Amino acid sequence: MTNSKHSAEIIPLPREDTGVKEDTICIFLRDIEVPLRVGVYDREMQRPQTVRINIEMHMRLNHHFAERSAADIRHSINYAGLHGYIFNELAAAPHIPLLETVAEMILSRCLADPRVDRAEVRLEKPAVLAGTAGAGVVMTRHRRP
Question: How far apart, in whole angstroms, are the C-alpha atoms of residue 74 and residue 9?
Fold first, then answer.
């Protein structure tokens, strides 16, 4: 454990099935625009195209934010790491034929944090088809007990 108040150490929350609906918090990244090599058509394989990404990660809320320093990020999900993954690793990845595969890659990264119970990714290719604002996919994954 480091002494830094911004330590990346994760503090797990206990899980107990009580049958009662739990309070949750949603951490999100919205309208990320990143050039990705994605698509099945010849024109999409020639060069990267802009993909708009929206991500939601849901976790249990145990009301600990009122009790602790707002600077203690160990009690929340650090979205900066996911942002870095998208711009540094995903953007540099070789061609990926389907947006669904990109969504699975992002969801896998989200659910790698054991506190995330549900994650949703929305991927959109802006103006990829004439007469549309965009086309894409929305995918949700739930942590299985």
Answer: 6
User: From CA 111, how far away is CA 145, in angstroms rounded?
Assistant: 13
**Are 125 and 49 within 8 A, CB to CB?**
yes
Residue 95 is classified by DSSP as: P
How would you classify the pairing of strands 49-60 and 116-126? antiparallel
User: How much of the chain is in helix, strand and coil states, percent to nearest 5?
Assistant: 20, 30, 45
Segment 110-132 shows an average pLDDT of 92
Angle, CA 32 vertex, CA 95 and CA 68 arms, to 5°:
125
How does DSSP assign 37-83, residue by residue? -B-SSHHHHSS-EEEEEEEEEEEE--S-TTTS-TT-GGGS--HHHHH
Structure-model confidence comparison of residues 103 and 145, the more confident one: 103
The conformation of residue 111, written as its DSSP 8-state character, comes to H
pLDDT value at position 126?
93
Least Cα distance to 99 among 142, 47, 136, 57 occurs for 136
